[in-house]
Structures are given as C-alpha cells and as structure tokens.
Specification:
The chain has two domains: 3-413 and 486-521, Sodium/glucose cotransporter, CATH 1.20.1730.10; 417-448 and 453-470, no CATH class. The protein has 23 helices and no strands. It has helices spanning 3-14, 17-30, 36-39, 41-59, 64-72, 76-109, 113-162, 165-173, 208-224, 227-234, 239-252, 256-270, 272-275, 280-287, 297-305, 308-345, 351-378, 384-408, 427-431, 433-436, 461-470, 487-494, 498-521. The protein starts with a helix and ends with a helix. It holds the Pfam family SSF.
Amino acid sequence: MSVYQVGASLFSSNIGSEHFVGLAGTGAAAGIAMVFYEWNSMFLVVVLAWFFLPVYVSAGVYTLPEFMAKRFGGARLRIYLSCLSLVLYIVTKLAVSIYAGGLFIKLALGWDMYISIAGLLLITGIYTVMGGLAAVIYTDTFQTFIMTVGAVVLSIISFNKIGGYKQLVHRYMMAVPSVTTNVTSSCGRPREDAFHLFRDPVNSDNPWPGILLQSSIGCMWYWCCDQVIVQRSLAAKNLSHAKGGSLLAGYLKLTPLFFMVFPGMISRALYPDVIACVDPVKCQEYCENPVGCSNVAYPKLVLELMPVGLRGLLMAVMLSAIMSSLTSIFNSSATLFTMDLWRRVRNHASERELLIVGRLFILLLCGVAILWIPMVKSSQGGQLFNYIQAVQGYLGTPIGALFLAAILWKRMNERLYAVTWWTRVDRKSQTNRHTDLTLQEDDTLSESSQQTPTTEAGISRWQRWFNFACGIPSSTAKIKEAPEISIAQRRSFLLETSKWRGFLNINATIGLVVMAFLIGYFH
C-alpha cells in the first residue's frame, strides 16, 4: 500500500464514531483536556514507524502475539496477549463503535437503536468478509476523505453560528441548564479550566501527570503494539511508505480539537438544557440516558445546524467513521483468533477452514459487543471517551510496557514460568503446590528464555485443559505455524534511500514541533 493509503487507513481505523460522539461529548462536558490524547499520537506514530516497525518486520511475524512468542519462547504470552487483545477490542472498540453509531442513527432517523446496530453490522460485515484487508484499506482511504470534508464543513458552520472563538469561550462558560439539582453550587456549570490541557495534579478531573503518562505509555499499546494499527503499517510497500503514512496520520490527528471538540463545546453553548442536563428525569427525557446527554452533542449539532443536503453529507461522514472502525476491528480480530488461537486447536487447519472460522468469529464478537452496550452507556457519567481511556489505561498500559521492555532490554525473559507449577512433570512437586507458588530465582528462565515445559503421556484430563489454557503443547502435538516472511521480503521492506530517509526525518521533526506548539499554546 502507498503512503496515502497507509496514512488514511491508520487515521480512519482510529477515528470512528466514538470520536465524533465521545470526544465531542467530553468537550461539551469538561472542556479540551482529553484532546491531549489525540495530539500525543503524533509522537507515538513516529515511535511506531521509526522504532517498533523495523523490529516487527525483522522478526518476520504476522501478529504481535506471534512476536512475543518469538521473543520469549513458548506460547503462554502469545495466547494471553491474543485473548487480552480480543477482550480490549470488544469493550473499547467494537461495543463503543456500534453504540455510538446506533445512537446517531437513532437520533437522525428515529429507528430503534438495536435495529440500527443490526443493519450497520450487516453492511459492514459484508464487505469486510468478502474483501479482506485490501478492501478495508481502500474503503478506509475513501472514508477518510469523506470524514475530513464533512467535519470541516460542520466546524465552519458551527463557528459562524456562535460568532467565532471568543464567543465560544464566553458562551460556553455561561452554558448552564435551566433545571439543576441542589447538590452543589457548581452543579451543571462548566469547569473553570475547561480551555486548558494541563490541569491541577490533585483536585482536577484529569490531573496532568496522569494524562501525560497515560497518553504516552498507555497509548503506546494502541499505536505501537495493537494488531489493528500495526497491521496497516505492515501492509505498506516498504518502510519509507510506512513512515510517510504514519506521519500523514499524525498530522490528521492534530485536527480533532477543531473539528470535534470545539463543535461539541459549541453544541453545549447553543443547547445547554439538552447537552448539559444534570437532572436524571430530564436527561432520560432528552436522550434516554439518566446519567447525562453529553454524547448527543455532535449529532444534535448536525441535525439542528446543517441544511438538508449537507445533513446527508454529515450522515455519510458518521456512517463512514463507524464502518471504517468496524472493518478494521473485524479484520484484525479474525486474524488474531485464527492465527494465534484456532491453529492451536486445529493443528492442520486448511486455509478455507481458517477463513470460515474467522467469519464465524466475527459474528460471535458482534453478539458479545451488543451485550456489553448497556455497560458502555452508563459508565463514566455517560462520557464515552472517558470510558475508552479508562479501560485502555487499566489494560493497555501493561502491554505497552511489556513490548517496550522486550525490545529495549535483551536480558528480559518470561518470568511467568513458575506460575505454571501445575503442569510440571515431577508428580512429587505437584503435591506441594504451595511451595511452587513462591517465585525464586531458580524457578525462572535464567538460563534460557526459549524453554517450553513438556508434559508426560499420562497426564490428567484437567491438566490437558490447563496445558491448553497456558499454551503448552503436548509432547506429540505439532502446531502448523503460519509461513514466515522470507528474508528477502524483509530486506526489501527495510531498504530506504538516503534522500527519502532525510525527507521523512525532517517531516517527523516538523510534526513534533507543531504538536509541541499546540500543546504549549493550549496548556
């Protein structure tokens, strides 16, 4: 794939309906602080293309859990990371995307939310299943263009409506709903630091040390160690195209403040009774969510301000954002499940079987994600983007730290070996299980991180299941691994001319300077 296709696919895979709905809603509720996560992406895509990607290509892997297996040996980490990634896809991407999409369609067309979700999943699933990764990237390129144009149009109309940036600041700070509760004097009022990125480290809703660490180490998992994102970069023609595509995505990630957050804040300023509602009865009446209606800020703006023709354009923007996110999740999830999990169940599965299993697994993911929607709807005070960052912070940060240490520290090995005490061959040691739980230096893989425990022939049925859960093969089973990328392919991907290397390095420096300027201006 070329520079533009990689960059557009990276951007549209990240920017989905959860950003248009969630980021605008967070801006309406609490100001611009959360946009730091978007701007710091410029730094992280540079880290991905200049640091992580050459390592992945040199390792010759198709999935990132596969890289962990090659790095540490065995299969425990590979299976664990595959399962954890799938859980993260469900609770932070798939469920959030279909909820945001269903919410927008419900407000725009008046359909039942779950009927809207079913239609959305059906359309998206068809061209994902039929076309594979190539179809996903080509549609992402087109959808990125639609999203960008539509977001620019709505932003211009919104600022014209409110009278410019100064009027936005004034009217936003005065945007208080007419019906409030008597809990505190600040109930329903905007935060005094709403137009600042860095907030008080003790008494604010988003302390700046936490945001700084979470947006760096925590989001490193998303941009540098997540199958959905890295798969796009690996599809580039060569490393120069991957770097250029990453920079393009980084520049596009500097725009959400102007095209998503500010429109959300304008929506609150124009419709405070709806967007800023705090009374549960009124919120239930306005948006059928008693914890708050900030998530309807962007759809409300689209439906109220846009003329009929442009309203259709913004409908296309939202649907494009939804479908681009869903296709990316579907394709990457199917790859993870079939390559890292299903091959361990069916050692000699054919390509056709893997294809069918991947498609069926997509259906299972959709069902589980729909069941998770009520949790998304009610969490974090109804602020969708806060929910996303909270879950990613808890689960994604350790993964990012693990990948970073695995690449930077040669002596790091898999110190989870002693946890698998149940599978040890020595029956006598299995009877004293409590002593095996103590992690001593002798129990670790100090001599070699490439060892894989073996099991004897007469193991129990329970132990067989435990072996499978921990990714420990039996002595006779032989896993049919995916074909490795050839050395010639790896070398051709990593080759760069000095001209393009210098051009890309200069552009990366410019992008980081622009990011630093924006952060300094809005700090």
